[in-house]
Amino acid sequence: KLGAKSRKLWIVKLKNKTMGFKVCFFVLLGCLLLVPETTMAQDMKHVSIVIEGASLISETDENFVCATLDWWPHDKCNYDNCPWGYSSVINMDLSHPLLAKAIKAFRTLRIRIGGSLQDQVIYDVGDLKTPCRPFRKINSGLFGFSKGCLHMKRWDELNSLLTETGAIVTFGLNALHGRHKLRGNAWGGAWNRVNTQDFINYTISKGYVIDSWEFGNELSGSGVGASVSAELYGKDLIVLKDVIDNAYKDSRLVKPSLVAPGGFYEQQWYTKLLQTSGPGVVDVVTHHIYNLGSGNDPDLVKKILDPSFLSKISETFKSVNQTIQEHGPWASPWVGESGGAYNSGGRHVSDAFIDSFWYLDQLGMSSKHNTKVYCRQTLVGGFYGLLEKGTFEPNPDYYSALLWHRLMGKGVLRVQTDGPPHLRVYAHCSKGRAGVTLLLINLSNQSDFTVSVSNGVNVVLNVEPKRKKSLLDTLKKPFSWIGNKSSDGYLNREEYHLTPENGDLKSKTMILNGKPLKPTAAGDIPNLEPVLRGVSSPVYVLPLSMAFIVLPNFDASACS
C-alpha cells in the first residue's frame, strides 16, 4: 500500500527472482502513476512563515549551549534505578577518548560544574579543619549524603581535560560552608569564605582558566533541601565579589564573572537578592528549569508532545528577564541547569529521541527571552546525560545540541506563522556565515508540512504548486546530494532532518537525513552532513521530526 501515513511499500517476494523483480518494478510504477494526488498528500498541510529580519528581538552568548557535570556518587538512586554509575566530577573516567572527542566537537563547549551536593563540598587545600573524605550515604545529611571533599589532585586532572578540550568553565562554589540549620529548610549564620578563598588562590596559582564562579545551588526562595534568605545571600555575594577581585588583581588571568543564585525562580526573592547585592556585583543571574516534572511521571511523553504544555514555561523566561531589567540591568539571565525531568531524568525518555522535541524547543524558546546561556543537565550522568555513562556514546540530545551550536547564531529573529501550534518555528542569524537558520519542530503524529518562507517583502521559499508529480519527481524526492554544490550548479540550502530509528520515539539512535548517527569505527564523532536542495524549493517537514534549514540568501539586515 502507498500512502502518506505508511510511507512504505510492502512487496511479496516471489520464488522466481527474475519475474519477481519485473513484477515489483511495474507494481511500483503503477502505484506512483495511478494513485490520486489527494491520496498521496492526504496529511500534507501548507504553512507560510514570515521572518522579520530587520531587527533582532534578543541575542544569546556565542556559546549558548552548555552542559553540566554533577557531584552525585555511584549510589545516588531514584525510583529503584541508580543511573549515575561513575559519571560525576569525583569518579568519572577522565581519560576515556570519546569523552574528550565529544567535548572537542563543539570546539568551545561551556561546562558548568555543580549540582545538589556542591554546597556540601569542601576543598582539600589550605588549613582544612576536617578530614578530606568522599561522600557517603547518611540519613541526616542533605539529600541523604554526608559532606564530601575535592582533592586537589582530582582538580588538577579535571583541569587537564578541560584545558585540552577548550571547555569554557563555570564552577559552583559551596554557599553553605560555615552556616547552620535553623528550622525547616532554612539555614542561617555567616558564610565561611576561607576554604573558598584558598581554593580560588590555588586555582590561580596553577594557571587554570575559570570563566565564572557560581555561588550556591538551589538555595533560593523555599529552596531544595536548604534555603538561605535573599538578604543574607546578597550580603555574602558582596563578600565573594571582594574575594574574587583581590585574588585576581595581580594575576595575568582574566577575572571571572560572578554567577548566582542557581536556583528555582521566585520573583520576590530574586528581586531582593539584586537589590541587596547592588549594582555591578552579580554579573549573571541563573535559574533552573525542570518543567516536565518527576522522572517517573507516566505522562512525560504526552507532556513533551503537547504544545500548550511546552509553552507554559515561557512565562518564567519572560519574568526572569523582566526582573533583571528592572532591578539588575547590569546582569544577564542564564538557565544554569535544566534536565527536563528531575530526579535523574526519565528512563527511556530523557536519553531517547523523544526528548529532543522538549530540548530543542527549550533552546528556541529561552533564546527569544534574552537568555544568554542554557546549561543542560548533564553532559554525563543520570538518564538525562548527553553522553551515556560508562561508554560516553552520544545520546540523541547530544546531536541536537551540537547542531544548534554549529548552525544557530547569536541573533534571534521574530517569526510569524499561520501554522498550527504543533509546528514550532524558531529563527536565528546563521552562525559564522550569511543568511538565516530555521528550526522547525513538528509535534504532530499525522501531518506533514510544506513550508514557504518570506521576509515580509520577498518570498524566499515557495510552496510547490499543486500538480501531478512525474515518476522522475517522485523517485528523486527521497534522495538528494551531499556537498557544497548540486550537479546543475544552482545555489542550494542545507537541510538537517532529524527522525528516530525505525520510527520509534524512544529509540536511542537519531537519524540525520536517513543516516544513523553513531561514533565511527575509529571512535570519532560522526560528521553531521546536510542534504542540499534548491534555495527556492519548498521545505518538507515529516510528522514527529525536527529540521534545521539554513537559508544562505535570506535578506535579513539585522544579520549582516
From TrEMBL:
Keywords: Glycoprotein, Hydrolase, Lysosome, Membrane, Secreted, Signal. GO terms for cellular component: extracellular region; lysosomal membrane; plant-type cell wall. Coiled coil: none annotated. It is found in: Lysosome membrane; Secreted. Pfam families: Glyco_hydro_79n. Its main location: membrane. Belongs to the glycosyl hydrolase 79 family. This is Heparanase-like protein 1. It is a peripheral membrane protein. One of its GO terms (molecular function) is beta-glucuronidase activity. It comes from the Eukaryota. InterPro entries: GH, Glyco_hydro_79. Endoglycosidase which is a cell surface and extracellular matrix-degrading enzyme. Cleaves heparan sulfate proteoglycans (HSPGs) into heparan sulfate side chains and core proteoglycans.
